[in-house]
Amino acid sequence: MVIGGGPAGSTAATALAQEDLHVRLLEGAHFPRYHVGESLTPSCRTVLEHTGIAETLDKHGFTIKHGGVFRWNSDSWVFDWGAQIGSRSWQVDRAEFDQLLLQHARDNDVLVTEGVTAKDVAIDADGRPVAVTCLADGGEPYTIDDFDFLVDATGRSGLLSARHLHNRQPNPALRNIGIWGYWEDAALLPDTPKGGINIVSSPEGWYWVIPLAGGRTSIGFVTRKDYFGERRPSYQTHEEMYRALVEESLPVHGLVVGARMTGPVRVETDYSYVAESFGGPGYMIIGDAAAFLDPLLSTGVHLALFSALTAAACIASSARGEVTQEEALRFFEFAYRRSYTRLLALVSIMYERYLGKDGFFRTSDRLLGEAQDRDDSLSFVEIIAGLSDLREAGDASTRVLTERLTEEALKVQERSVSGHDGPGKPDFSSVLDNPLIDAESADFRLVTSPRLGLERTARG
């Protein structure tokens, strides 16, 4: 049973059903429903090609995203996925995107029920979920107990991690707030690759500019919670504050000259957190239910889909008897936590603005174990594309060792303590207090052919 029908839940359910498992999915909302997180990475295309919906998304008319432009402090650089890594992704309307993914799950024989909220989970003496208490719209509570394995994809509400196990740890450095709205006929920065995102820093945060289909553009500002709180009383409405913030950035304001703002201004907190564990006997926690990082590098849907595919591979292999459930859980924990840790290190480095783009690129090289005398951004591009996570999950010889990631995390944290910190002070305690599992997990790799699952390596 999968709880949650967002990108993580629908993708995990589809992948499991395609491996001939009987899958039920519960979703509390009725789709389509609004959601932020519109800019996707090439890794999302790779996962969705595997589940068979990428062509549908291409035909739907979403903006094809080929890269973007960073203007970060005094630096400016272009990343072009087509030219650098031969890939692309989408800028999506999440209401439409999520509905397409959920319908694709139905088309693959997943039993999808909308308007049913999972309220509680019964856990047996061994720590295994054995029943879920559900509440349908306007109905009476009822119980579902005919499942062998539970996948928690309930997003930030975190049915298991936040509401039952209470094992999610916040990162106090990344207590940010986003405020955003939509425009018609806005422009993009010069040299932006076709359909690309613009990311523009300011002294107190940063802006996103995302071109959507139909001439619409999503423009948002992300800043610290305390700064937002200081500014907000000066304005009568969120819209008034938002317009002032857009005007304060010369590059961003220049993009909306002659454009028209449409729809409401929205505000949302995006506090960073990570669960102490991503699974246990009879369950896995995927997507935002397990961890949320930061919107800076558009990692939300990447982490959702990467964890969904990895979880499905682990569950399918365990169900077929190819690996034990303990081995499957260990691999999932390792692969997902490694991805989160590396992205956390890179995001934290970028908030330390004094390093500049060359410092970001060198850090990216170290995070991938690449030669550090290269004068290019390829490692940075591969990480923000999410492709390094997929590659390492499928190739044991390219695994980044736990010690290397931990070393980089400590370096970032030490720089913060020494007083060189930027707007956010990185805190890796939630990662460093729960070291990645490495040695045993290197006995396996993720494979998608001839079937999705785990394969023992020569070492294993």
Automatic annotation (TrEMBL):
SUPFAM superfamilies to which the protein is assigned, alphabetical: FAD/NAD(P)-binding domain
Pfam annotation, one family: Trp_halogenase
Organism domain of life: Bacteria
UniProt keyword GTP-binding present: no
Protein name (record): FAD-binding protein
Family: Belongs to the flavin-dependent halogenase family. Bacterial tryptophan halogenase subfamily.
Organism: Streptomyces fuscichromogenes
InterPro entries given in the database record: FAD/NAD-bd_sf (IPR036188), Flavin-dep_Halogenase_NPB (IPR050816), Flavin_halogenase (IPR006905)
Entry GO MF terms: monooxygenase activity
